[in-house]
Amino acid sequence: MSSIVLFGPPGAGKGTQAERMMQATGLPQVSTGDMLRAAVKADTPTGRAAKAYMDAGKLVPDEVIIDLIKDRIAEDDAAGGVMFDGFPRTVPQAEALESITSVTHVIAIEVPDERIVERICGRYSCSGCGSVFHDTFNPVPSNGCSCGNWAEKRRADDNEETVSSRLDAYHEQTSPLAEWYRGKGIFHPVDGDRAIDEITGDILDALKA
Ligand code: AMP
Fold first, then answer.
1. CB 65 within 8 A of CB 35
2. 86 in ligand 1 pocket by Cβ < 6 Å?
């Protein structure tokens, strides 16, 4: 089993690209953020352990995340590998991942900090299918999402105050992972401050390497 990691700051477009890559690679998307939000909504023990960290824009403790990933990876659809979105976010998480699956490519979607706030504060998704949109860069069509079940959803943590904590967490705890993966020769940076299709093209090229 071999997997891909989509790496980058909050709001870099990992979820948008993961949706497209799922179609291109056939690998299921594993987003720890989505899994945690589902756990919070269902009020599970994991959700209760994670909620305060998420509301504050801080990283959820490694043990909680690693347990979540171990359970997810044991599911049938993960047997051929997965595409991680938002995981790993710390060196201990990456070390744990090494014992769970082999990672062939780490795709780093790079976006400067000054672009992140407008990207995050303008984004929303379709509660019917999860497709991600943006007020300015990628608005939903006037007749709603193509899935036919259009209803707008905005994340509680997509506000200016929480974004700055999330960026701090990214720089302090997550970005050191870039060097860690670079040293393993599987790190592929992609300029994420461009049109969505161009970024997808670069990711597909990187996956051929
Ligand atoms: P995301 O949807 O990836 O932006 O994640 C939303 C929030 O969930 C983050 O701000 C963290 O609080 C938490 N989270 C998601 N993935 C992780 C992870 N791999 N490690 C720690 N916390 C995480």
1. no
2. yes
